[in-house]
Specification:
Layout: E1 3-8, H1 17-26, E2 37-45, E3 48-56, H2 65-69, E4 75-77, E5 83-85, H3 95-99, E6 106-108, E7 113-115, H4 121-125, H5 131-135, E8 141-145, H6 152-160, E9 175-178
Parallel strand pairs: 1-9
Antiparallel strand pairs: 1-8, 2-3, 4-5, 6-7
């Protein structure tokens, strides 16, 4: 599987530190869409309502539809297994944006190229974790090695029964979500 991210929605406060940190690191203007978006979901009927606020980013799929539809070779999986975009090859056709079932790709308006989260691969090369995980004040984002059963992320996935969003799409994402009282919400 490689490296991945666990989002503990029970710890997420919706503070958007992950969004702001990501935008700052990648030089994305405050008014532009970024690599992470915050979901605000409400489930149930009054008076039994549950609300979850949590980040959604590129799921770093093993079988990414965004890469499969790219006619120009701009979308690819790099040597570390990360879904990436070669901005020199991207023509801005937006097919990858339409193909992503997680709505995790976006068109950078200033450059007219498709972008998405790449787990801050430039930081990973330097031995740091993604900026979103570092910026999270509640430790709701846990990054690590999914192949190591002793890693914090692997243990948390096991302990919390964390699952990916929209598992039925069979993209085999590397981002997992824990803390939902109703796991049906993961299929929305």
């Amino acid at each position: 599987m490689g490296i991945g991210l666990l989002v503990d929605v029970s710890a997420c406060t919706g503070c958007e530190s992950c969004v702001v940190g990501c935008k700052n690191w990648h030089g994305i203007s405050a008014g532009e869409q970024g690599r992470i978006r915050i979901m605000d979901l409400i489930d149930g009927n009054y008076p039994s309502i549950s609300r979850w606020i949590f980040p959604v980013m590129c799921m770093q799929c093993d079988y990414p539809p965004c890469v499969a539809v790219c006619r120009y070779g701009a979308g690819f999986i790099d040597e570390k297994g990360l879904v990436s975009v070669n901005t020199e090859k991207c023509v801005g056709c937006e097919l990858c944006i339409l193909a992503c079932p997680y709505d995790a790709r976006y068109m950078a308006p200033s450059r007219r190229v498709a972008l998405g989260c790449d787990f801050c691969k430039d930081r990973l090369r330097e031995g740091y974790q993604p900026y979103c995980a570092e910026a999270c004040p509640t430790d709701a984002l846990i990054f690590g090695d999914l192949d190591n059963p002793a890693s914090s992320i692997s243990q948390m996935i096991g302990e919390t029964n964390a699952r990916p969003l929209k598992k039925n799409f069979r993209t085999h994402p590397k981002v997992f979500y824990a803390g939902f009282s109703n796991t049906a919400i993961l299929e929305r």
